[in-house]
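[scheduler] slot 2 assigned
[scheduler] job type: sequence-to-structure, two independent chains
[scheduler] chain ordering preserved from manifest
[runner] begin chain α
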Amino acid sequence: MPRAPGRIRADGNENYAEQLVAALRAPNQDYETAESLTHPFHSYPARLHPATARILVELVAENAPRSQPILDPFCGSGTTLVEARALGHASIGSDLNPLAVLVARAKTWVVQTRRRGQIRDAAHEISALVIAAGKAARRAGAEPAPTRKPVGFDPNGRDRRLKSWFAPHVRRELELIAGLLDDLRTRDAELADIMTACLSAILYKVSSRTSDTDGTWVDRNIARGAGARNFAQRAELLAAGLDDMSNTRGAVPEVHLRDARRLGDVVPEGSIAGIVTSPPYAGTYDYAEHQRLRFDFLALRHRDLDEGEIGSRRSFEKDPLAADAAWREALAESIAAMARALAPGRFAAIVIGDSVARNRGMFALDDVRGALTDDLVMEAWASQERPMLGAGERRAFGERGKSEHVILLRRT
């Protein structure tokens, strides 16, 4: 969502349009929702703002049975699922990104109190072992720890890709944490996955990578033991957020590793009470590239994402015309899959923005209109202008300008 709020235009059903306008304004008015529950646990590029998601979940879930699920077919790190759970609704998420699925499952792991407590216990035990091992490694005559070799990953290639991003002492700490999680996985795979999400949450903070979306190398002075302490702190943050979420009733959300175009594999036709989602913006992000450091370190298999990511920047840089056609086809297939999943008369709220793809302006509201199926009606929409544009964006969008959109569709 834009940091500098611009003018908002809206049309369609007046009541719904007002709620969509409120959803666009929420990030600049509601500063609490994004810091609540498990939202702060793990960064994720271009995630749907929690305050926007909260309003849209309330809108599409109105008058629906709590047992009838809310769906997010591009669930990312699980923002919509967290808000659906906070309202006491069942929910289903899917994403083609294995990291997204890992994080979304962790953020919605609302289980019994004793089970949630194991997050804290395991994290502090692992942290203590890693700090003790670091002290032992500095003693004279200590043998260096062996490099971890995840199954299915070329150890030499993995080492080359990781070496420049972590100071040697940081790398040793992180590898030991990951190795201890591998041991835990043999006894408790579910808890090990939750703890792996905690490790993922700190990786870029103790690396020399600038951020999720900026792969520039930056010099960071990371203290010894910082990785282990940050890991335990991140686990505490997750456990506290899950404790807050446990005060609501409802099923633990389902999260599937699935292409949005194949929703029918996991979602029965006509079974969904409402959809809140934010599809990729054409030519804007490369999730497979943004997360590659995490994929390598955590040993997450990502070939399907590499091949199936919708609207990636790299696809437009490689062949703009083919990428444009593929983007529109993928968007249409995704919206058709959403239409099939929705129960008749229920709503889908789509948050999507205009973008620049290989120097060309992509107008998302037009693209969604062009992708609609016969059984979907656009009930309302709201668009917020992005007033702070670079020179390239001004050339790409001209007088029409660039906007973020919230679009409300109804299945007939």
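[runner] end chain α
[runner] begin chain β
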Amino acid sequence: MSTRVLIPSGVLGLGFSDEALHNGIKARPDIIAIDGGSTDSGPWYLGTGNSKYSQAVCRAEWRKLMEARAELGVPLIIGSCGTCGVDDMVDWMAEITREIATEFGQSLKIAKIYSSQPHAFIVERLNSGNWRALEPELPIAVNDIESASNIVALAGVEQIQQALLAGADIVLAGRATDTASIAALPIANGENIAAAWHGAKITECGALCSTHPTSGVVLLDVDHTGFTVTPMAADAHCTPHTVSAHMLYENADPFHLHEPGGTLDVTNAHYEAIDQKSVRVTGSRWITDDTYTVKLEAARSAGYQTTLLALLRERRYVENARQWIERLHAFLTTLISERLAMEPVSYDLDFRLIGMSATLGAQERRDTIPTEVGVLLTVTAQSAEQSMEIARLCNPHMLHFPLTDHEELPTFAFPFSPVETARGELYEFFINHVITLDNPMQAFRLETETINATG
């Protein structure tokens, strides 16, 4: 016996093969589990409480999964609703679920797990010492907590299991670990705990652990001694390499994975191809922690940004682009002080050379000279007005600033008009800690509702 989990994709909104989903349904899984997002795309989504993905696309994919759930008569789970997992995004998914249930004429019970944290509770954890910094350690104080626009705790399997015990047909979880929604039912059914967590880690991104990553859909079978993973697309295959490699994905340590309540150790895991499509994994180990901890994520405002983009194509300026922006940066810093009475401590000018060192900045070690280079200037200041004022002061000098004092003014190209693009408010992550809970539900709220759409 085993517990069979169908994972349609790495995240709702990314897409999956309809044929592969149909094959997965035919395999008769015990549950369907999918993730709703993560911190991959930066702090803005948590800071503002918004989804990265298109609502129309999420609704269309969720409609297919709700249809599959009804056909199978099994639970459907989504973790980290709306990318960031704040309470508003759980309610966002609940509204989508109600609309689709009404469309289908479905009656069902939904469970909502709320992960947003009141400032007062986090301050209490901090003051009582029920809190530990992770590496790299970020200094934190009570006043820092108050500056957060949103704080979430990452749920594990225990919170999702409570929702399943409540008889939920659909579980809408706030921020949760990427693996929790997949591992919850196998562990509740008494399968091997290490295998459940390990299998969940391997399949969290759907078919990324296969030879056809964009097909999306994979099937996970967890039993008492290990797990088996099988991609559902006809032309997709899992191999020991594609499966074992996924322990490297978004994980600093390829042999250890920390989750609420313990640590997965795959040091002695064995990966074996059992046929041309499936891989069997055994030998992983689960180490239970003495205390139950959950990770926190928090975002806060870090100013406002405006961007400008200029294109350099004249060979001499392309070859000397780094020296040009260093000279321009110094010139603009003096000009901003003289004209706007602002000192560098109150703003930031960040130049990136697209085509040369836009990704790594000063850490770039390659020294190739492209045909042209884009110069991206990002201005960050304490208000939107200040950011735009600085950008407008920089505008003409991005267009005409010379490489030396003894030459004619050059003219570069602006691809847009107006040149300045207001990016709005900037957010930053500022908590890298776990908190200790007296019980797994202490930092979470579980609410259920029944939708009766049969008329």
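[runner] end chain β
[qc] chain β: The chain has two domains: 3-298+431-452, 314-412.
[scheduler] slot 2 released
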